[in-house]
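Quick one: structure tokens for this chain, please?
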Amino acid sequence: MLNPSTPPEGIDLVTYLSRKYGPQVAERVLHPNNPVSTAGRPLGLVFNPARRVVNTISAHRLMEAAKSFGNDTQNKLAEELFRSYHCDALDVSDRAVLLECAKKSGIDEATIDRIFNDQSGREVVLRLDAKVKSQGIQGVPLFVIKSEQTSGQVVLSGAQPPQQFLAAFSQVSG
């Protein structure tokens, strides 16, 4: 989770980005022709700048529980959550939004109710979050590039240019 202390009402994206990175970065990120928006457009992804940064612990709980349904279901859920938040500017901390995303992914309502009524799922997510942060991981996306032939491993955190990936592949391949 990037922002576990986000208040329940969320924070306007422009305000959040300006506070965290400065107004110039917020302006670049929100420009309709920024690199992420430009790359997403041909894939049918239109990023909505009107969204709010919200606490995502419930979405993470749902993703963690979706593991038991297999990769296909978990991947569908991740796509639904991504589209709901980034494209439709929906509040992915809202139970109704999460319920709809889960249903579209093939998870039935009774199972979803069990997930949210079981507080141990919250604790699991908080422990995983603490573990990740203790390893110095602070950004998304996160890529762990490993070699099956060597014990080499490179971790790239956050958006990286193609040159960084090429260097990482060279490094782990020995």
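The two ends are 33 Å apart (CA to CA).
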